[in-house]
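Structure in, sequence out. Go:
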């Protein structure tokens, strides 16, 4: 773990969280969520404890370094490129309106996000973390990101906005997973990302079908299906 690189990245993640909570523009939100995921993908090899040993380990470590690079490329490609492109396509094909609405408003969302971020820092400072993990921002940033995603998930009326909240929550779980990166097999990491893609793909299909009947794709319209 390299705190000199990880901590500034976590500060950027927290800044993006507030932008996600405060913007009503759908395309901007998709772009920022994609940037969010790409940043975490690039952070993956930095957080890998064995990265520097592999980099300086000579030809014997070349295979491990290539595997790490391919995994990083897969995470960045899926989180930062593939999922945002699929969502932009859904917006275009379903003719979804370009702005989101919030149950509580966007300013209260940002305020709640700020309170939650402060609570995450306070809670993380009381956790019995392993030596070396208590001096960087991975734990509070992960908790704050999960909370930001949850706020988007439960307060946005549009189905696509809720999909984005789900993605932000998964990003927060991914940040927490960086603490255990050496204990988690490569296939588990790929499985998490692929499960996310499958989940988003299914939700996009649902959004498209709902949008054909209801152009604004608001979950409030689902109440009519009870009859």
């Amino acid at each position: 773990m390299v705190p000199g690189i990880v901590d500034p990245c976590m500060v950027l993640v927290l800044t993006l969280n507030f932008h996600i909570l405060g913007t009503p523009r759908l395309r901007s939100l998709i772009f920022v969520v994609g940037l969010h995921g790409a940043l975490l993908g690039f952070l993956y090899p930095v957080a890998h404890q064995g990265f520097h040993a592999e980099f300086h380990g000579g030809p014997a470590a070349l295979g491990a370094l290539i595997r790490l690079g391919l995994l990083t490329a897969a995470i960045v490609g899926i989180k930062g490129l593939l999922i945002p492109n699929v969502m932009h396509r859904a917006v275009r094909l379903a003719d979804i309106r370009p702005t989101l609405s919030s149950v509580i408003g966007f300013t209260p969302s940002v305020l709640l996000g700020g309170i939650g971020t402060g609570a995450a820092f306070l809670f993380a400072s009381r956790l019995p973390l392993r030596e070396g993990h208590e001096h960087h921002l991975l734990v509070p940033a992960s908790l704050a990101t999960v909370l930001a995603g949850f706020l988007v998930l439960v307060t946005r009326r549009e189905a696509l906005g809720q999909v984005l909240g789900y993605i932000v929550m998964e990003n927060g779980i991914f940040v927490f997973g960086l603490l255990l990166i050496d204990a988690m097999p490569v296939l588990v990491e790929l499985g998490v990302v692929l499960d996310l893609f499958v989940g988003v793909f299914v939700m996009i299909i649902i959004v498209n079908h709902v949008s054909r009947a209801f152009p604004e794709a608001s979950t409030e319209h689902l109440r009519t299906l009870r009859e």
